[in-house]
Amino acid sequence: MKQTLIWIGALVVGAVLGLLGINWLDEVMNFVATVYTRLFQLLAVPTIMLAVISTFATFGSKGSGRIFGRTLVYTLLTTFAAAIVGAVLYVIIAPSNLQSIPELQEEAASTIPQQGEAAGFSYLSHLVSIIPNNIVRPILEGNVLSLLLLAFVVGIGLSKLPDSENKSVVVKGLLGLQELLFLLIRWLIWTLPLGIVAFSAQLLAQVSAGVISDSIGKYVLVILGGNVIQFFVVLPLFLLARGLNPVHVLGRMMPAVLMALFTKSSAATLPVTMETAEQRLGIRQNVARFVLPICTTINMNGCAAFILVTSLFVMQNGGTPITLGIILLWILISVFSAVGNAGVPMGCYFLTLSLMSGIGAPISILGVILPIYTIIDMVETAENVWSDSCVAAMVDHTIEGN
User: What is the pTM of this model?
Assistant: First the structure.
């Protein structure tokens, strides 16, 4: 409770500093926020690798397979729910077209990344890039899916090795490195109020500078409204269905959710999410360190809703009738695209751009969305980490009950 109050206080202080509009202060806050983001990204890669490998090696591939199955089921259920909520809101709110303001579209088109950039981000090429061609490159690039693939292989290999002194040495070494890593994470979390001040100041400076536009208010309402409903209604209902108290779970996981809100990266938040899940929520170590790295990669509730709503909005502006069949088709596309989404900055945005380019939709609309994507990305990431926490809590509760 004390830590949460300190973080909220840091949030308020940062908001005040951001609203002052002092250039040199904004630059200092941007510098501090960038440093904290890079430090958490630095810890995220070894956290993912060591968590998965050590879990497989010590818990065994058979037990891990059962946990993975539960994780995948809960991930798909929550992601489909997020997409369906977005679809329902889109039909109810019915955002209007932007074709009445072509000059806005022309201006926005100049801000869109080039077609080649979108082609380089095609879904097929992304799937191919998951298969590493050397062991060092995924680590250097921070390719989360490739790292998970390598970690699965190494961890399963260790679990299948016969008990021996060599195997014991390797496993103890991995566990020792993991303990050291979590010590560094705890140190970083201890200094995090300074980072929260910077993140909050950075956000408020952007808002006061006019980053948010009201020209597509209904579209934004659908996106953010869907995230709010998923966050406060749908995910708590999943927890209640498994016999868990959503207020208790959210209260315990709040540090990770707040961290995700400001870093806009589930992967960068992963060290905090794991530490919070184990120490505050009481999720068993072998579950938290196996489920959360996987969820960080495939459990993208906010991304699925963004892909669906944005695709419908862009297609509608291109003259495509939004029928029930179109909505159902794009619910499927958005869910499975989100599950395979790359762990890169603005990954959902570029994936949507690639999908729309592939069907010839007017991608200039995405230029209108770009200025407000920072805010959307923040809310989506917080929702993703909250969903990760819910999945981990449900898996832990389910495994414990069996």
Answer: 0.71
